[in-house]
Amino acid sequence: MRIRSINLALTYALLIAVALLFVLPLLWMVCVSLKPPAEVLQPSFLPTAPTLTGYREIVRSAQFDFLLYARNTLIILVLSLAGVLLSSSIAAYGFARVPFPGRGLMFAVCLATMMIPFPVIMVPTYMLFKYLGWIGTLRPLWVPAWFGSAFNIFLLRQFFLGIPKELEESAMLDGCTRWGCFWRIMLPLSRPALAVVALFHCLAVWNDLIGPLIYLTHQDQFTLALGLQFLQSKSGDTPWNQLMAASTLVVAPVLLLFFMAQRTFIQGIATTGLKG
Amino acid sequence: MKQAHFGTTGRRALSAGLLWTAPWWLGFLLFLALPMGISLYISFCDYPLLQPPVYVGTANYQALTRDPVFHKVLLNTLVYAALAIPLGTIVAVLLAALLNQRVRGLGLFRTCIFVPTVVPLVGIALVWLWMLNPEYGLINGAVRLIGPALDGANNAIALLTGHRLAWLGELAAGPKWLALPGWAMTALVLISLWGVGSPVVIYLAGLQEIPEELYEAAMLDGASATRRFWHVTLPGLSPVILFNVIVGLIGTWQIFALPYVLMRGEQGPQRSTYFYTMYLYDNAFRYLKMGYASAMAWVQLFIILALTAAVFLASRRAVYYRGT
């Protein structure tokens, strides 16, 4: 009995230490962002007199136009999110419920494309968008989302397959069309899966650096991630409390989204990993 | 008559199917097959972007074999993968096993470990840049606290073996992390461990799928906790480990944002944190050598496919699938 309780105490001590290690960098980011400039280089962890000076100054500076970057990021986010949800679920429905010759092969190809990493098609995709005259616009960052993504199609198809066919069959007997079945039965029943797709898409857009780095040419089109990278690459004289304030501003919305939808996130990760 | 009937329904089914799946195959043709076709052709061309491509045969591929920078980025990426993937797997499995012990506040601990994985990489990189600052960073602050102990350990080692460990001495003094080749790579691997949260969540779910009866049976047979871990937990988890290793393998070949931001778009001390995708990016968008960059992209795809196939083959004996 005593050994058990010692074991338990050790487990908790270890868990608390590990948990602290994982959140420490983020806590430190917030702490530094709240320090007054004079205190930044002092070793203390907590700011003695927390202040929003860092935030005020970084938002005002010409080097980091937070509101403009946030607006650009949101435009890409909304336009691509609508595209990803609609196109992936339509294609997934096709793979799950519309039997046609060659479907299996087509789905296999779809799965295989998940293996192809973006850097491999980076150069020709850039050339394609250059040919279309889209370099220096937000279009390369959201238009492709309207053509489905293999991973989301896979995820939604698996979910659709788990919904009993009888629902649609009886609706079709009552004269419901395929589109009606998809739109009025399948989509409403698939909210949990759609939420997972939407969440991961939001994260991917918010965090993407290489896409904006390649396609955007003017500072007034920058996304938050690219703006932050740009600020950092020119940060010779930007004080660290301001840099950490900028970081916090970019990180905070993601954390907020995460805490609001934690369950969906973790279940999404767990199921894709287990069934994938 | 019957034949014709089948033909029309077949054709109707085909057109319905193609219509439904149109978003995918249109995107596949337009944004994947077409670019890959172009890329394959361009990889056999000299193409400085501003002038039309000129066919040069396999010159780009031959140049790759002689390019010392290419060899360096290949080596760096392999070293990083060889360190980050096994370490990440071990840490993730251990953390998942730790979380799986029916502790209270499981959700809170899991959240803490998972949170770093959702944070934008650029923001993470910026925080770590400051954490790793040799003078003011938190890391060297902690190192200085345990510095005397590390020095003591080093003295003990010197007494036993006659040699002081150079790296331990450097660590005790608080290294200039991102300015020294070995330490910069170490820092990147450590940061990658910080992002181990999503494998932990996947492993945790995997652990919970292992039937309780197996553990009970093992305990009846008198198996110790360690033996239960090796003979029940690990085999049960092996398909999930395989999945994560492959995802990790594909991911490490794409590592870009973190070193790019940490090194301000440069190559790191003595090119020690210059990775495959960074060199590909620089060739394409800095030096405008589109043909050369395309050749690199095709080599990258083949390396990834070959490594994945190798992992699959190597895992055939090690992975245990329940119910098959």
Can you walk me through this structure?
The complex is a heterodimer of chains A (276) and B (324). Chain A has 276 residues and is mainly alpha-helical. Chain A has 2 domains: 57 residues, no CATH class; 170 residues, MetI-like (MetI-like fold, Orthogonal Bundle), CATH 1.10.3720. Chain A has 14 helices and no strands. In chain A, helix 3 packs antiparallel against helix 10, helix 8 packs antiparallel against helix 9 and helix 10 crosses helix 14. Chain A is globular, with a radius of gyration of 24 Å. The relative contact order of chain A is 0.14. The model of chain A has no long low-confidence stretch (mean pLDDT 89). Chain B is mainly alpha-helical and 324 residues long. Chain B has a domain of 208 residues: MetI-like fold (Orthogonal Bundle). A two-stranded antiparallel sheet of chain B has the order 1-2. In chain B, helix 14 packs antiparallel against helix 15. The longest helix of chain B is centred in the N-terminal third of the chain and has 32 residues. Chain B is globular, with a radius of gyration of 26 Å. The relative contact order of chain B is 0.12. The chains are: A mainly alpha (276), B mainly alpha (324). Chains A and B meet through helix 1, helix 3, helix 4, helix 5 and helix 10 of A and helix 1, helix 2, helix 4, helix 5 and helix 6 of B.
